[in-house]
Amino acid sequence: MSRFFHGGGDSSSESSSDEEELYSTSDEEEQAEEQESSEEGEKEDSSDDEAGPAKKGLSRFLLDQASSESEGESDVEATAKVKSAKDKRFDELDATITIIQNGQKINDWGSIANEFDKLNRQVAKLQDGGKAPKAYIKCITQLEDFLNESLAKQKVTPKKMNATNARGLNAVKQKIKKNNKDYQAQIDLFRKDSDAFMESDDEEVPPPPPAKVKLQMPTEEAGEDEDKGFARVDKRGKAIPFSPESIQKHLRAILESRGRKNTDRQEQIKIMEELNKVAATPYLKIRVLQTLVSARFDLGSGTTNVMPVEHWKAAERELAALLELLEANKDHVVLENVEEWDDDDKVPVLGPDDKYIKVAGSVVSYIERLDDELTRSLQAIDPHTSEYIERLTDETSLYNIILQGLLYYETIRKDASLEVPQESLNRVIQRRLDHIYFKPAQVVKILEENSWKNVTSGIDSETTPRALSGDAGQLIHVLCNYLFEHSEGIIRARAMLCQIYFLALHDDYYKARDMMLTSHLQENIANFDVATQILYNRTLVQVGLCAFRKGLVYDAQNTLQDICGSGRQKELLAQGVMMQRYNQVSPEQERLEKQRQLPFHMHINLELLECVYLTCSMLLEIPLLAQTGSSPDIKKRVISKTYRRMLEYHERQIFTGPPENTRDHVMQASKALAAGEWKKATHFIHSIKIWELMPGAEDIKTMLAKQIQEEGLRTYLFTYAPFYDTLAVETLSTMFELESPKVSAVISKMISHEELAAALDQVTETVIFRKGVELSRLQSLALTLSDKASALIETNERTLELRTQGSANAFSRKDGRGGGQRGGGQRGGRGGARGGAHHGQRQAGGTQFTGGALGAAVRG
């Protein structure tokens, strides 16, 4: 304000000086807070301020207010106390020690384990090459004593601990011994005389700061000689020594840093590659390779990350090197149920009574993860590019790893002292089965032969000998039978489904059908996981396609009905995510759906599947529509609601152009078949180009032509039987270009199934049709009303029985409608006749055989 108004005189000048002094004091305070000064320096500054001249302006009033409360010491108290970074770290260390001590009081090992890791990180910052703080030495000594005391109590009186406490206790048990080795001298001094140790004033002179090391990334043109002057350094600039003695310590540090934030995984991989070069003993090589493969898998961790291709190939090579190393050193074995070696200063050696050096790890887990990462990579690549084909070639090297893993487990299982779980071998065999069950036999044969070439000639498999590589069917049979005998649950069910799929793929329909029925998987498949349910759906579809190739139209349609009739083929076969119009799909569900998708090379052609399903539905529905007609007295039976809906939509169209896709071809063929134009229907079906994708396309077209001829004959007889008294078999043979014995067989089958009211005169080869009584419109409506009334009575009685909890039978006996009377009374005559053999289905041209009182009246 003072800088704009000049008429204020003294007040204006005074206010301007006040503002300048206020801004100057605030700047000085900000500078004082930014600098890290000691307490003595602060006191000197405060004394200088007191000796200086009195301030003016706003600061003058602040001084008066402070002097009214306390005269001399107010400035020191009002000044903010600034702590150095070292003091703050000591305060954090004391707080962490307090939490650990509180955790000991309540036996909370979970918090103790977490705070112990935090404590070690804090000490690493404070120590800086000198001695550790005395408070830290006291804490870890007391913690070790408390741990030994707790373990002793646990042995005497074992108590069940919760999962968090048990994990925390095991973590502290593994870390405390190794951690205290580095401070053993100070711990011994503390145990000798704790008071004297804590009161001693000897402080280690901190070492000089490390010299900055200039890092230079070598260029591609630089040779190996130029890199000799450089060394890998850590974050503090210290050179990292790579020697066989330091390998285990490096591995321990890398394992402990896994899963933490801001961890440079690429740097860890480079360090382990250097360690792999200097590893001298087989034990160290095995440990380094295990850690290296695990670190590469961490690059693909997460739901959206895909493991880089170069790291996948490197992991595959390292896993192959690990298996070769285990094969060359028979005295080293990798097992899951082995305690981890925790002494980083020594390497385990064979004792006088020891036969093996056991290393903790799981070969089958590495194989499964490698397989899963390849699947995720294929899911992320566009299948219509050459990159997908190139990536798919890596399946051969993966299959080699699976075979070598199977041979390794078979080798170590020969020694009963190792106690190798059967589940590990089952998992390897299941992975091998998953890669070959959907492939043609010729492809499986080539894959097996190439894999056995990479195996040493003297090694053979007990489960699947080398001789089986030339017979894919026998190989699948042996693998599946092994899993039937030695596994249960999901693995056993998947093995059965894989064998059924392979049999159906190679046209062994009856064996595949019998296995599917005897397995009873259709009854409890809902209890299995989603992946097994998807495999079940794929197997069901493959069995249906096999039945179609065999010419079994009814079996094929019945098998494919559940999958194709639902309209969710993509989702059920895991070949795409269906866009649901009215349902909100959460991001988590969408992510899970995408993870379940099968790679493109495992897909079943959905257009071919729809074509087969609609063609089978046409061959069954068109004769049924001709048989039932528009009579209201017969309950309409629907074979395929999906096909009926498509057919109705096609008939509602005003203008129908030439067929453009598979569905249009089938609909126009259906229309032609219903009109009796079987040649036209055959032409439409044969015009579908998708048949070329099936093996033996010409044989399938020939089979479809015969099926259309037979169904055309049945449709003609259902439609035009009322207009004939007799019909020569020769005439029908000429019309549909079928042999006379075939026509007679079709007519005999229709008569035996009571679909046609006729008789076949084999002497004159003539069909004689029986003329029944044509029901009037009123009689047909009366029968329909009678059926509806009966259904209404039954519904009411069921509802009454549910409400009265079973006492409805008593009321029904009182009014004369009890169980016995109702079953054999007035309604029983007609009901029995209608449910009997003569009234099973509508007869040709509306002619039918009726029973009961109404039927007798009609006939009379």
Automatic annotation (TrEMBL):
One Gene Ontology biological process: formation of cytoplasmic translation initiation complex
Compositionally biased region (Acidic residues): 16-51
Sequence similarity: Belongs to the eIF-3 subunit C family.
Main location: cytoplasm
Listed Gly residues bias regions: 1-10, 818-835
Domain of life: Eukaryota
GO molecular function, one term: translation initiation factor activity
Name used for this protein in its record: Eukaryotic translation initiation factor 3 subunit C
One Pfam family cited in the UniProt record for this chain: EIF3CL_C
The protein's role, per its UniProt record: Component of the eukaryotic translation initiation factor 3 (eIF-3) complex, which is involved in protein synthesis of a specialized repertoire of mRNAs and, together with other initiation factors, stimulates binding of mRNA and methionyl-tRNAi to the 40S ribosome. The eIF-3 complex specifically targets and initiates translation of a subset of mRNAs involved in cell proliferation.
Source species: Trichocladium antarcticum
Entry GO terms, CC: eukaryotic 43S preinitiation complex; eukaryotic 48S preinitiation complex; eukaryotic translation initiation factor 3 complex
Record keywords, A-Z: Coiled coil, Cytoplasm, Initiation factor, Protein biosynthesis
Assembly and oligomerization: Component of the eukaryotic translation initiation factor 3 (eIF-3) complex.
Domain PCI span(s) in chain numbering: 600-774
Subcellular locations according to the entry: Cytoplasm
Coiled coil: 166-193
Region entry Disordered, spans: 1-85, 198-227, 804-860
